[in-house]
Amino acid sequence: MDLNFKRTQRCEAISHPSLRSNMDSSRAKMAASAKRPKLQFAGSDDRLYSDSAEDVASASNFRQVKVTHYHLDLNVDFQTRTIQASAVLDLQCLQPCAEVILDSHATLSIHGVRVTFKDGRNTSNQHPVTFDTRPFTSYGAALHVSLPSAVNPGDEFQLEFSYTAGQGPALCWLEPMQTAGKKLPYVFTIGQSVLNRSLFPCTDTPAVKSTYSAQVKVPEGFTAVMSASSRTEGPEPNTTHFMMEHPIPAYLIALAVGDIASADIGPRSKVWTEPSVLAKAKAEFEGVVEEYIQVAEGLFGPYVWGQYDILVMPPSFPYGGMENPCLTFVTPCLLVGDKSLTDVIMHELCHSWFGNLVTNANWSEFWLNEGFTRFAQNYAMSKVLGPEFFLLKVATGLSAFTRQLGDIGQNHPLNCLRVKIEKGVDPDDTYNETPYEKGCAFVSYLQHCAGGDDKFDQFLKAYISKFKYRSVVAEDMLEFYLDYFPHLRDQDLRNKPGYEFERWLTTPGWPPFVADLSPGEQLTRPAERLAARWAGDQMDENLEVPTDISDWKTYQIVHFMDKLVERPKLTHDTIQALAQAYPNIALSHNAELMMRWCLLIIKNNFTSDLPKVKVFLESQGKQKYTLPIYRALKTGGPEAQQFAHEVFEATKDTLHVNVRTYVQRILSA
Questions:
Q1: Residue 515 confidence (pLDDT)
Q2: CB atoms within 10 A of CB 163
Q3: Catalytic residue IDs
Q4: Could you tell me the pTM of the whole model?
């Protein structure tokens, strides 16, 4: 929204002071490295920068052979916590080769491989198919399949694997007590970023997109759901068939099996969850989802995926949401009862365009998924709740990014948009606020330079139309942006001093430009003034400071709490008075508020409220909430540190394996 940015003749920056001193010394080098040849998009070749981009997180030879379709046959066994499976991969040769290398995992037991050539060639007198699994990284292995005869560009063939999966990091097996209903066990999968290689052999890179189908057999009384465009029961007993007709990267193939029921929440949407939670979930999302879809379609183009369903997960689910196409997985933390956190649904929905339809080609470019989606979420919600919401959410996001800069340091390489991931480094270990908030700031800058809403709206639709079903790197997007706005290319916007595209991508720290938040001050200023009063600041006695926050929206209270958490110290008397004045915060069932209350009491050593921290950590396993709390406890006094170890020992088995690992690292540092 153009009215929400600084009205200047050029793109003004709001720079963090610590970056300004480094600006001049690095400008020349950045400008030189930013001068790349213009990529031509016209013509039949239509090649992208991403076509030659490397993905160090994949062992596969995906530049030589491409998987066009997966078919999975999965038999889920809760007693042994295994999946007896077969996978048929349709492949097309891109470059001459005599072997196929796929991503796999040490926990994936491959029993046999069979090859079928679609040209009908006789392989009986040729070398047999052999395979072996070789070390690759701590998070995966390389599955080498030697073909009986070499293949050439254009050749099509199938590989069929029989295998067993079960204990890999993609699969989360839950005991009945870890579910909402407490009756049946549950299993779900998470593929992002590099976990699905432990569910099935694949080219586990976002650079490759494939369709897939699946047949899932489950025990009596269980229901299976997947991220698929169609779902059909039977005719075999306890068997469900799935089909995804649109090409997607392997990490978006997802499965959940448990005591799951569904209810309609819109003309093209259902909510799925455990029966004991179904009524609450239906009430939270009904009447919201279809409105969100229509708003997003108006901004970004048609929703191509058909169905948009939501699966409310068990409490151990580590994310707010996962944008598995056609079936978004979400945390039960969203079930507040007042629809106040349903903007998370808008975030995951916007991934249907940014991330699922147009995808980062490797995990160094994760900001292309999340930065565009954060911008799209805030922008779309501003159409629902008003433009002030956009600015309030930007302010909330920047507060989170500020906390991160304080935690890991301004110049940490993980504060770069384009993260350099070395071979062997798990991409999940680079996950933080940067691709979301700094990425959103970069997209906001591009919107501002384009001339505001209307022009940028048309660019976003053109961007989606141009690159749908493809994977891109930053150069692909930025060259298309400059092609779309040729006057900005003529102005050499790429190398604009202080705002060089290369600076945005590779310089850590505060973004060179953020939205002007002043038009949203009707929401942010009362929250900031109230925080200042509670912190004991000297204030103009004539300044109006609200004390009744009963009519405030959730994110206005979040902004108030963020400003309190940023304060060096509050007295115990102040915190006690806060709890008495605003029990809707201290006793909240809203996870966004409760997380900030936990941070406040830990930072100020208000140990009498530590039991609330324990209850909160026991109630959910979301990474966004769990890790900051453990970091705060680790930097606290001896009592807080001892408390952290005790709570972790009591709850570690309920956490997702990645979250458990990250907490262990925090506590052992």
A1: 87
A2: 20
A3: 348
A4: 0.89
